[in-house]
Amino acid sequence: MKREIRILGIDDMPFSFGEEKVDIVGVVMRGGIYLEGVLKTTIEVDGKDATEKIIEMVERSKHKEQLKLIMIDGVALGGFNVIDGEKIYLETSLPVITITRKKPDMQKIKEALRKHFDDWEKRLKIIEKGGIKEIKLNYPVYIKHFGIDEKDAVDAIKISIIRGAIPEPIRVAHLIATGIKKGESTGRC
Amino acid sequence: MKREIRILGIDDMPFSFGEEKVDIVGVVMRGGIYLEGVLKTTIEVDGKDATEKIIEMVERSKHKEQLKLIMIDGVALGGFNVIDGEKIYLETSLPVITITRKKPDMQKIKEALRKHFDDWEKRLKIIEKGGIKEIKLNYPVYIKHFGIDEKDAVDAIKISIIRGAIPEPIRVAHLIATGIKKGESTGRC
Q1: Contacting residues of B for A24, CB less than 8 Å apart
Q2: pTM for the full model?
Q3: Are A117 and A65 in contact (CB under 8 A)?
C-alpha cells in the first residue's frame, strides 16, 4: 500500500441531551499525515441518516477522486445513528474501515437499541454487518472492514498511525470535532 | 530554535453579510507538524474584542504551559476586529507573529477604517504597531512580530512550513475554519 494514500477520517461532535442534530467532521489526510481538507455535515441524534449523509459528503467533495479509503470512529455516530459501512462502500466505491479502541459490547448495544427504538432489529443488523475483528498493533483496536481485506486494512491502519492506537485521520477529526464544539479539544477517540 | 516548538496558529471562519459574530479557530501544533489540540472562541464581526478573546482562549487552554509562540493569519480577524499583537504578547508572555501572503495595503485599510468606524484612528494605530516586514522564503510573506526578534521569527516560520508559503498551524487553522463553516475547506489563507 502506498504511503501517500489519501484517507478520509470521520468522527462526530459531542452533543448534549436535548440536542436533535449533531455535526460530523471529515478530514482528508495524505499518508495519514498531511492535512489536505476538512469536511462537515450534519446528522440527526439517534437518527437514521448517518450513512446517507456520509455518502453525500464524500460524493460532493472535491477530494473524492483522490480518496482511497474511509475510516470512521466507531459503528455509530450521533448516538445510535448506525453506520452501514457496506452501503458506503457500494455507493462510493471507497473501502470503509470502522475502528474503535474499545471492543463494542454487542450485548449492551442490543439491549440499548431494543429499549429505545422500534426499528431496533434493523439497526442491530446494520451494526452486526461484517463482524468485529481485534487487530493487535502496539495497542489493540477493533475494526470492521468493507471493500478491503483484513491484511490491507491492517496495513492502512499501520501507515496512518503516528503514535498511540488511532490513525491520524480519525485522531485529527476527533480533535476538531471536540475543539469546535466545546472550545477546546478533549479526550481520546 | 527547537524543531519541536509548540505553536498556536489562529484564523477566523468566513462570515456573511449580516452575521454579527464569527468563530475563530486555534490549533496547537508541535514542530508545526503534529496536531495536539484545537481551540475555538467567538468574536464580533468588525468588533473590538479579538485581542481580548485570543488572550482568554490562550489563558484557559490546557496547552498554555507548552506553548512557545502564537501565529495569526493577518492583522485583523472577523473583518476589522484588529489584533493587538503587542498586547497579546504582554498579557500571555508568548511571542506573536502575524503573517499574510499579500502585503497589507495600509492606504486602503486606512480608508476603509475611516469610512466605517468612528474610532478608526485607534484601530489604525493598533494595525500600524510594529510595522510590516517582508520575509523572503520560497515565497514572500509579510509579518509583524512582537516579543521575538526578526531572526527568530523567520526561523519559526521556516520550521513550521511543510510546503507553500504558510506555516502549518495557520494553514491547518484555515482549513478547519473554512471546512466547518462551509462544509468543505477552501482556498488559501
Answers
A1: none
A2: 0.96
A3: no
